[in-house]
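Bit of a strange request maybe. I'm writing a small parser for C-alpha cell strings and I need a real example to test against, not something I typed by hand. Could someone generate the C-alpha cells for this chain?
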Amino acid sequence: MWPFSALPIVQAPMAGSQDAELCIAVCEAGGLGSLPAAMLAPATLRDEIARIRAGTDAPFNINFFAHQSPAPNAAAEARWRERLAAYYAEYGLSSFSPGVTRTPFDAALCEVVEALKPPIVSFHFGLPAPERLARVKATGAKVFCSATTVAEARWLEVRGVDAVIAQGREAGGHRGLFHSDDLDAQPGLMALLPQVVDAVRVPVIAAGGIGDGRGVAAAFALGAAAAQIGTAYLRTDQALTSTLHRAALARAQDDATRLTNLFTGHPARGLMNRFLREVGPLSPDAPAFPLAAAAVAPLRAAAEARGEDAFSPLWSGEAGALAREGDAGEATRRFWREAQDVMRGLAGRAS
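Reply from user aminoacidic:
Good idea to test on real output. This should exercise your parser:
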C-alpha cells in the first residue's frame, strides 16, 4: 500500500522546467507533486512552499541535491572556455558571468526545511551529511532518495530513508549516481527495479522511461510501490518548459536522447542538439559538476534569442515521444486510469 499520496504517481522534480504550479496540479489530482530546490535561493524556496500550501492541502515533496561542491579548478575552467571559444566568436560573445547554478543541501536550505516542515524531502546524488539528515528527519519529514544501482539502494536503506527511487538508465535529467560514475554499470529500469525491490524493505519508486499508464503498470508488475514520471509532464500546461524544448519533445523519437555532461559536468539525459553532436555527448573537457554550466549559459541565451536550441539542455527520458500537451492534473489521473486498465486486462488474461 502506497502511504504517501492518494495515487501512487510521483511527479519528478525538474529544475528549470517547473515551479509550484506543476506541483500543485499533481497534488490536487491525487499524485505526489514535487518541487526542485537545487536552483532556488532560500527566500525563493520559502515563497514556493507557501504557494504550494496555499494551493493544496495534499502532501508534497521538496527535492534537493546532495553533491559536494568541487574545489575551483582554474585550469579546467580555462580549458572548457577554450573549447567553447569558437562558439563564443560565432555568437559575438566575449566573456561570461557565472549565473544561477545548482546548490547542494547547505545550512541555509536545511533551516528552511526546519522552519517550514515539508511532509516529504527527497535527495539526488546521495544523502547530506548525517547531522544534516538527522535535522531533516527531526522535522517529521519522510525522506526519499534516488539510487541507480542495488548497492546504492542498500546504502540508502541502512541510513534510514523511507523510500528508494530506483532510477533506471532511461530516465531524463541528471543521473542520481553517487557510488560510481561508471554509466555502463547502471542498469535500465526493467533490470534494476526488481533487484532493488528484492534488496530493500522500504517502498521502491520506479523512475525512468515511464511515459503513460502502460509504464506505470509495468513498474507495479516488477514490485514498485509507485511510479515517478517526469518527461511526460514537460509538455503540460503547468510546466515552465520553453517553446524550443516543447517543440523538440514534440518531434522526439525513441533514439533521440543521449547521456551528456556538457551542460553541467554531470551525466544527464537529454535530446540531441548541435552542442551534443559537435562537442560530446560526453566530453573530458567539461569541468566538474556544476561548474560546466557557467560557460554554457551565455551560448544558450544567445542561441535561444535567435530561436535556436543548439545550446539548450533539452532534458528528456527515452520515452519523450509519449509526452502530451494538456493539463497536468488530468495527465496524473490518466496515468492512473491507464495503469488500472492494463492491470485489469492482464488479470483477465490470467483468469
